[in-house]
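Page 42, continued from yesterday. The earlier attempt failed because a stray header line got pasted into the input along with the sequence. Redoing it now with the clean sequence only.
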Amino acid sequence: MTQQYSIDTLLAQAGNRSDKRTGAVSTPIYLSTAYGHHGIGESTGFDYTRTKNPTRSVLEDTVAKLENGDRGFAFASGMAAIQVLMNLFKGPDEWIVSSDVYGGTYRLLDFAYKNNNSVKPVYVNTASLAEIEAAITANTKAIFIETPSNPLMEECDVAEIAKLAKKHNLLMIVDNTFLTPVLSRPLDLGADIVIHSGTKYIAGHNDSLVGLIIAKGQELCDRIAYIQNGAGAVLSPFDSWLTVRGMKTLSLRMKRHQDNAKEIAEFLREQPQIDSVLYPNKGGMLSFRLKDENWVNTFLKSIKLVTFAESLGGTESFITYPATQTHMDIPEAERVVRGITNTLLRFSVGLEDVEDIKADLLQAFAQLK
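This time it went through. Structure tokens are written below.
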């Protein structure tokens, strides 16, 4: 019987002693693109690195365990992972998608549908089961949700949506980037596929671009593996190694991110310059709105410890301006209707001392006139 370890143990031991020949504790970086065969039909299990690489396999096996999936797949970016999932479908297939979805996902779905007869995105408030069910048609094949959503931090009931998906024979895809398997395991709640921008919390250090898919079901996993190999947008051995190394501290980092975010959310609610704070009381991500659009650029120029940057989930605190960065490809009128106003800022709360983060925000607020 295989020992069932806790997630903290799985993370700390990620990749350890994966090289049985040498007993190396840290998993090696296998840069070889080709692997020798002993004879016809006598493969070592590794043939060509696009198909399978020992370092990438360590990462893929680890994330599958973390999410309680059957197989994991690592890609060159989160968007490459979503592209692979889109290739499971074709027009006139439809996805029901969170209306508050990452702008890059919106851009890819919108472009592919309009230009390549790809899957049609149907945007609804996926926090509402009634709205989801009302949007289901004969062409609907999947439900795609972010929870919490990006950037409005709206939460969806994964278990109830999964029941609805199964009722209508739909695949359920959950973007778990913001919470990670430390705080949420959607496959345990009935989802079929989990995706991550592993660039963010999983790798955790703003030094590697990573996309991950974890799925359940032999047939579904085989289809994803076939497309991964054929399309070829796989993660490099070095980035695979960086990700394995980074996620060894994921559990510790998520606890600190969350503790800091909870305190910063309360702090922001007390500031006279703040109109509203959006925080689901879990994870390290929050958003807030300033009271005056004219203050935004001054505020972003004034922060010193916190970095004005487009990513999230690293050790450092980042603030992003969705209107001109992550969600700029959504037409302004549509973006504002969705709640992504020109006063909205997204805050990836880092691991710094929380009092230092507060002090930086206070000195920036003091510049707003």
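Notes: The mean pLDDT is 95.
Reminder to self: strip header lines before submitting.
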